[in-house]
Design goal:
The complex is a heterodimer of chains A (493) and B (431). With 493 residues, chain A is α+β, with helices and mostly antiparallel strands. Chain A has helices at residues 14-27, 36-41, 63-75, 128-135, 154-160, 167-170, 204-208, 242-254, 267-274, 298-314, 326-337, 339-344, 362-375, 402-421, 440-443, 446-459, 482-485, and strands at residues 32-33, 56-58, 80-83, 100-103, 110-114, 119-122, 140-141, 177-183, 189-193, 217-224, 226-227, 231-239, 261-266, 288-296, 319-322, 349-352, 355-356, 379-385, 390-397. In chain A, helix 1 runs antiparallel to helix 3 (63-75) and helix 8 packs antiparallel against helix 13 (362-375). The chains are: A alpha+beta (493), B alpha+beta (431). The complex binds flavin-adenine dinucleotide.
Chain lengths: 493, 431
Amino acid sequence: MPGVRPPQEAPTSRSDAELIAGLRRIVGNEHCLTRPEDLFAYGCDALTLDAQRPAAIVLPESTEQVASAVALCAYLQRPFVPRGAGTGLSGGAHPTPGAVVISLTRMRRILSIDADDRIAIVQPGVVNADLSAAVAHHGLFYAPDPSSQQVCTIGGNVAENSGGPHTLKYGTTTDHVIALEIVLPSGDVVRVGSDTGFAAGYDLTGVAVGSEGTLGIVTEVTVRLSPIPEAVETLLAIFDDVPSACRLVGRIIESGMVPASLEVIDRRTIEAVEASVYRAGLPQDAGAVLIIELDGAACELQAQLERVRAFAYEEGVRGLEVARDDAERARFWRARKGAFGALGRLAPDLYVHDAVVPRTKLPEILEKICEIGDRHRLRLSNVFHAGDGNLHPNISFDRRDPDELARVIEAGREILELCVAAGGVLTGEHGVGNEKRDYMGLVFDDVDLDAMRRLRDVWNPDGLCNPDKIMPTTRPCMESNPKARGYDAVPID
Amino acid sequence: MGESSAAVRDAIGRLLGDMAVVLEPPELMAGSRVSMRIEPRDAEALATALRTLDSGSTPAIITGGGSRLGLGNPVRGAQVELSCVGLVGIDELDAADGVIRVGAGTPLAEIERAVRPHGWQLPLDPPGQGTTVGGTLASAAAGPRRLGFGAARGCVLGLDTVLACGDRTRCGGRVVKNVTGYDLAKLYVGSLGTLGVIERAWLRLRPAPRSTRVVVLSLGPDSDPYTFALAAARHSAARAVALVCSELADTHMQGVGHPLDAADWLLVAEYAGDEEATREGAERLAEGRAASPGDLTAIDALRDLQGSVGALGVRARLHVRPSRLAASCALLRAAAAQLLVYPQPGVIYAFFDPSGCGDEDPWWLDGVFTALERVRGEAKAELVVEELPEWGRGRRDVFFGGSGPLSLMRSIKARFDPNGTLNPGRFVGSI
Ligand SMILES: Cc1cc2nc3c(=O)[nH]c(=O)nc-3n(C[C@H](O)[C@H](O)[C@H](O)COP(=O)(O)OP(=O)(O)OC[C@H]3O[C@@H](n4cnc5c(N)ncnc54)[C@H](O)[C@@H]3O)c2cc1C
């Protein structure tokens, strides 16, 4: 991937002028941005390795404005890219050069809350955490909770099928979205799904969630709300090493419990957290900490807590703290949710990876990932959703050093190949975007990808809607054909 | 069979040997006369069969265990049955991770038997004897435990499907969290075999509960059954909660051992989870009422009832928001429907019995559809007629035109099955 390109001159070509004049008529002058600094700011998302210069950014305030802007782009055959808060980590909101960025952040109204039926209808720009805050007085919350929830939008969550630390019990975004309003790449507006949770026909809501803004622009989302659990217990288990923490995770899951969260933070991340504003009082000589959260009916939690405690001691836990109150619970979570921020302080850049392996493979894969980092002389640390095998190896680096940048990219490739060879996949929650599309051939063969293309081409026939995402530009190489390899057959060791 | 179809049939016979059987005389199936039955035993044979059918423009009825053949509109002009029952077997059970890879023809009961000793359960419980994984997923079928298990699509991690052109494709995988590429599994699940044939699946299992408790009680005319049942369903350990109207309870729920007396409804609730939680759920429900402890046969009875059709009548499935249950049920009762209600997530099975009307009475059937249309309009219900008398098939779209953009759905069908080989006509809007 090339380094960041500095923003060029403001757009001048005739077709740009026509486009921008049209966009201004639709959203008003002040909501169509074309200054160089704006074009720079919207040139990438939280994956900053590569950036491009869009032609303009529009900030519509209604479905009609989105539809008009899209129709204009379709008419002028101009690519366009939906964007939420820009916290995506796979380049999903990266514009192609000259594309129009359609930012949904002004569409941030919660349109209705029905506490009896436990559903809410929201515009795509609503910030994830704001929705939970708005329904809390009904005893409800919106379950998908990405660590970026204070800023990321529901529209972005829908596009990425985002997860979070509580996915283990509550599922990902797709399990909570029941209907959508979508502006198709033609500019037509359709409604898919239903507020009853069932709609006769193909599951268009199901395929739209996780489609990374390549099938259309979501302008309204109907979500299910969940009851705030009666009781919550949060534990912090301190271990000498990561494998021991993973063994406790295995014991808990194999005993039949379904905790709300099982999150591991490794030694290097602990050090970073403790040196930052997210400091949570974690022992700096620990090899790993595991946050265990149990929730449910008050009557059952005590017994579960005792079981976890017993397992923890059997697995050689060094220390075990149970949060006594909400403040202490918040302290434990500060370490986890602030981890990326803390790691971001170690070096000018942070590459947050995202891959999944069968949970039982975690200890051996993590060891090999650390070896890869060491071999490439990189500062690599791990924070991960241990309960579902979702890894986030993080590399702190300086992209101004071309040699280090090359090593970061090479290490990333090796990590993905390692995870796929263990029966895993490229991404569990951050999406493919433009970051991983050329690795798709590791997991799927040509025919599999062709089936995906069939779906995309129905919705997005001209490829104008968020181009260059998900689908690879290169053909998978024959030697590593995943079908011939048996896909996810896990090698016996 | 026409000339070219006969050639296709011959070609398939040559290519698949004993996996293809000529039916003499042809059999009537899902609205078509079928003169050949193909039962591939592996993915390659399935792909060969589809490739041959597709290139010879020979439409096929795709079947699993055959328990849900009545679902959907009649299949147009199919001459071949392509059955998935030969695609059997458990390829891999990862008992530590709680995931399993199975062939589409594997009966659910077989999977359940295999996973139980490892402390897992399969979160699928649709009605029907011999129901297979493929049939369950293709029809997105759920049973009484939909409350606890969630929709069928929720347990699907990955699918191997064969497209009409014979391409063998994969989506998803074995891991429990995955956003690698488009989520095509969502498209195949519930598509009634109109986009591709599900060949194998990776499924996510659930921990088997440490305890279960069933409670049965009757609700008299003075109670608000919907609010009461909804509260029961919203207990964190509730896995199945159903209301059965007295007429259906009299005929189908006798075995559950609870006196019905003059009750309007029978309520069956199942709690599953830790001992403390199931006890609390059951006690809270029974408080101050004459409740009987039930057992799992009550849940089996519910499942059988859900899959039954009274005297060649009509069975419709309606989905409503819980707050619209009372209004929907009132409208259905006024139209002489007998009801089985799952208050959460708001599913009603309405049974219409034609006895008392003349044989094959089209007026009666039209009346049923009109009543259902009314509930759809007034209570904003989503609905599907799941069963209707053979003579009534094809008179109306059993999906009432479906909901959502039909043109988009048609385009999807055209891309995945351009020659209309897979169950043509069966789906929403006769797709
Ligand atoms: C510190 C940090 C922590 C994170 N933690 C998590 C985590 O725990 N779990 C997780 O899953 N992710 C996490 N992420 C990634 C990211 O926050 C999520 O992917 C999030 O859903 C993106 O939302 P956004 O509003 O920022 O979308 P953007 O980044 O703006 O866009 C993301 C994608 O959505 C598309 N899109 C946006 N809006 C729409 C719309 N209305 N219609 C159609 N397409 C649209 C874009 O085109 C793009 O492809 C984290 C990121 C950061 C920086």
